[in-house]
Amino acid sequence: MSAPPRQLHLNVNILHSGFIPSAWRLPDADPLAFIDAAHYVKAAQIAEAAKFDAVFLADNASIIEQIDFRPITALEPTVLLAAVAAATTRIGVIGTASTSYNEPYNIARRFATLDHVSGGRAGWNIVTTADAGSARNFGLDATPDHAGRYARADEFTEVVKALWNSWDDDAVVGDKQSGRFIDEAKVKPIAHRGKYFRVQGPLNLPRTPQGQPVLVQAGGSGDGRELAARHAEAVFSAAHTQEESLAYSRAINERAAALGRGPHAVKILPGLATIIGATEAEALRRRDELIDMIPWSYSLKRLAGTLGIPVERLHLDQPLPSDLALPAGGNGNHTFFHATLSLVQGRRHTVRDLIRALCGGGGHRVLVGTPEQIADEIEAWFKAGAADGFNLMPDAFPSGLQDFTDGVVPILQRRGLFRREYEGRTLREHFGLARPGADNGDRVRAA
Amino acid sequence: MSAPPRQLHLNVNILHSGFIPSAWRLPDADPLAFIDAAHYVKAAQIAEAAKFDAVFLADNASIIEQIDFRPITALEPTVLLAAVAAATTRIGVIGTASTSYNEPYNIARRFATLDHVSGGRAGWNIVTTADAGSARNFGLDATPDHAGRYARADEFTEVVKALWNSWDDDAVVGDKQSGRFIDEAKVKPIAHRGKYFRVQGPLNLPRTPQGQPVLVQAGGSGDGRELAARHAEAVFSAAHTQEESLAYSRAINERAAALGRGPHAVKILPGLATIIGATEAEALRRRDELIDMIPWSYSLKRLAGTLGIPVERLHLDQPLPSDLALPAGGNGNHTFFHATLSLVQGRRHTVRDLIRALCGGGGHRVLVGTPEQIADEIEAWFKAGAADGFNLMPDAFPSGLQDFTDGVVPILQRRGLFRREYEGRTLREHFGLARPGADNGDRVRAA
């Protein structure tokens, strides 16, 4: 018997209105969707009906968007995802939370609670927070340096894992006859003493249905890649070419293997924005309509932010400046910086071309076409090993997601690439990840 | 026309298994209810069917219970309450979060999110955290002193309110035609510079349906009462006699009035545990059965903790030691210390009598009797002005709550004391509280 064929994984990044910043201006869009739980619930139900692995929510700790033109990432993910979990039964719920402005004990509890409340469907997307506005919301004048943020994130994640492991699976006895409720010998302190944190433990919450929520990360920089290789079970990456993505997947997984995590321990799920039409011409028309509703001043400012340069250095009808480089040790967004530059490499792009190619978006790859064309691209990347799946960002919600689930998913299913039914009940089972035991060596770091 | 009669308010404190520590041992109890969202959802649905004002969830940041004998407060309230809100439509959802081991920006966001997700039903129960175990989970060797904890709580709450007020009600424009999304002039920094916090703001989340989530507190100490008078809209108090509760209500409300908050600005909702039977004898039998399942060693340790003395000083068949006093400036639980002492005042109680009177519980008043008897007590306190309502703690879930809603609520309704239908949609409307405007003077504290 041959091994079952490798299966594609699909998450949807539920955005406030859509990947395209002007999506809220479409005739059927509700401008208040970004603060309406029903918007997120509806998207999750569409994705669940199509057997997606998970929904994904980003997060920020300040207003980083240009709010005069577009909705913001507003609702806190763990709270919102509990409402999403209550309205679904199978789909995973992955939320972002920053290691920069939280305490590990609180984060361990919130994601463990989400795992209990969702019946084993929770994932934590580990991020560090780089913007100066966030720093000023948490008592700092400026953002801590890049290396320091990642060192803190690494220790933070170790503490969270140790807290999740501080209860054995069978610690709750609940024997009504004897009156014995919990076996105290199976609930142990973690006694963590590190550079950034001292946490005694144990967690005040039993081990979760998945053993541990799934760990997700998005590491573009060197430090980010190291964090991903050490802890991530899935990475939400950004890449515009198969070659880039394949090299990234190999690098992360080789490093993870060197750290003793086994072969291909980290699923690579590149971000993928989609604009779908019944014909290619229709898809292109939809794209142009959406782009025409984005002010160029908005896109220029956003691109300048991604590239870490003053907006005055960008001119719509000229190529990008040739001397672009992320400041050394700086807090730029490595992922989007490199992904954006890879788009123009070796070609004569004007800034206007580049903004159109990015659809005014934040640096992720955009596919415009028919369901067949999009399925072909997905299959090509998947078969080449450049992706284990994708983190989808439809142009607009819910229409763009519905276009994908109605149009693209059936093609992927017919080609044997994507499940027709859920086989498991937990996010770990959807992703094909093992359930971590309590004794995985993470418990005690240093006495 | 006369003013509409004053209406009673009822919250239910959804406990892991019930007020009585042995509730999990009842034949129909599920020992795993404490980590099962369905347990909390079911209780909320029972309470909503009976038109309760709100459900209430306590919280801790360490294991403070004797886990060998009983379930613990485990699931994090804001996440759990989002799931509860998703399964209900009208009832308020009040969650506890500590000012000691959180950041105000994060708490402002989580409760604002809960208010959005629940459609205006969120409340925040403001607590400080006194136990040494919690301190050790957040990098400290010992708990900060009482006055310092309350000074931090006061500033923390001011920052949270200012963040909630940092968006005007009409800041979101969402005009598809012009492309204008948010009016930036209506979203303002708070520029808070205080002793404990520096927070620039604004919040990255629009103003919530209630303007602000409802502020709840439980202030027993002098500092706690001051915090309640300054910020609380409802207080979850502890009192065993009408006189105590009336004096407490007058003191808090006089202080609130002196602070410019208007007459009777703070609703007083004493904790009330109930054990209900069709006859008094049946209720007493249920009580005795439950008490007989609590190990005396457990209750002695718990009482010693409440009183702040070594357990060796307590002897079941002797009176309490006569020299009890909370250590000056200490971190004892003022509310339960005084409530417990008031129970024995002027009477010859043995420690065993006292533990039976407390039902092995934590210091709150316990009523044992028929629905009629319990309704009589509720009416008496309410009419005397000793309570605006109660925070109920049924002996066991869901049976004890169902006994209350089936038995006591119809009597209260017949007597015109409690609503038969919800009139409002938000928790503020249930409680009869005004919606705070954005310009209530809390925005900027100091430049």
UniProtKB/TrEMBL annotation, chains A, B:
EC number(s) stated in the UniProt entry for this protein: 1.-.-.-
SUPFAM superfamilies per record: Bacterial luciferase-like
Regions crossing the membrane: none
Enzymatic class: oxidoreductase
Single GO term (MF): oxidoreductase activity
Keyword Isomerase: no
Keywords on record: Flavoprotein, FMN, Monooxygenase, Oxidoreductase
S-adenosyl-L-methionine keyword on record: no
Taxonomic superkingdom: Bacteria
InterPro entries associated with the record: Diverse_substr_monoxygenases, Luciferase-like_dom, Luciferase-like_sf, NTA_MOA
Residues covered by the Luciferase-like domain: 36-386
Pfam families named in the record: Bac_luciferase
Similarity comment text for this entry: Belongs to the NtaA/SnaA/DszA monooxygenase family.
Protein name: LLM class flavin-dependent oxidoreductase
Species the sequence originates in: Herbaspirillum chlorophenolicum
